[in-house]
């Protein structure tokens, strides 16, 4: 079984969830998480006003773990696949340096990076020239409403 969402949900439910998924299709789904919680709680529901729950079922969960845990965690995880080739190229380059030490003024792999140095380097590898400093990068880019923003 190779499903990161099983690992995430098992962190909340315990290892029994991984066994349950292995016997029920080998892939996490919200329905599996919901059924697992229903079985473990004996069907007892509790109010749960998290916006994800409210939009999905009106605001409840079963009284065992949190069947919404994967959705709650995944909203904070980095997206690693993008439909736009340029965005994917930028992200592929940036992810090479994930975990590297921050170095003020750093702008390449030999020096490590600061924020704007990493941005300039990664966009450059994708064929897009950016100025060196954060303010200059901000000034050089097109500003859009938040409602038009996309991942990446």
Walk me through what this model shows.
This protein is mainly alpha-helical. It folds into two domains: 4-74, Lysozyme; 85-148, endopeptidase fold (from Nostoc punctiforme) (Alpha-Beta Complex), CATH 3.90.1720. The chain contains eight helices and four strands; from the N terminus they run αααβαβααββαα. This is Lipoprotein NLP/P60 family. Belongs to the peptidase C40 family. Keywords: Hydrolase, Lipoprotein, Protease, Thiol protease.
Short description, anyone?
The protein is mostly helical and 152 residues long. It has eight helices and four strands; from the N terminus they run αααβαβααββαα.
What oligomeric assembly is this protein in?
Answer: single chain
Shape: elongated
Largest sheet, described in full? 2 strands, antiparallel
CATH class of the largest domain: Mainly Alpha
| Helix run count | 8
Percent helix, as a range, is 40-55%
Cα Rg:
21 Å
**Secondary structure: number of strands:** 4
How is the largest sheet built, in terms of strand order?
A: 1-2
What is the topology?
Elements: H1 4-13, H2 16-23, H3 30-41, E1 45-47, H4 51-57, E2 60-62, H5 69-74, H6 85-95, E3 107-108, E4 112-113, H7 115-125, H8 134-140
Antiparallel strand pairs: 1-2, 3-4
Helix pairs in contact: 1-2, 6-7
Index terms:
8 helices; single chain; mainly alpha; Lysozyme; 152 residues; 2 domains; two-stranded antiparallel sheet; 7% strand; endopeptidase fold (from Nostoc punctiforme); 4 strands
């Amino acid at each position: 079984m190779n499903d990161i969402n099983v690992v995430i949900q098992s962190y909340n439910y315990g290892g029994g969830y991984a066994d349950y998924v292995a016997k029920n299709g080998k892939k996490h789904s919200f329905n599996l998480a919901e059924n697992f919680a229903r079985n473990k709680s004996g069907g007892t529901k509790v109010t749960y006003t998290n916006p994800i729950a409210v939009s999905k079922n009106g605001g409840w969960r079963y009284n065992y773990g949190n069947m919404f845990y994967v959705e709650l965690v995944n909203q904070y995880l980095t997206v690693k696949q993008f439909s736009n080739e340029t965005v994917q190229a930028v992200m592929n380059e940036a992810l090479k340096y994930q975990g590297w030490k921050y170095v003020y003024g750093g702008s390449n792999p030999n020096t490590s990076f600061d924020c704007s140095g990493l941005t300039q380097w990664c966009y450059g590898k994708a064929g897009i020239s950016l100025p060196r400093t954060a303010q200059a990068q901000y000034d050089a880019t097109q500003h859009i409403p938040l409602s038009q923003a996309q991942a990446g």
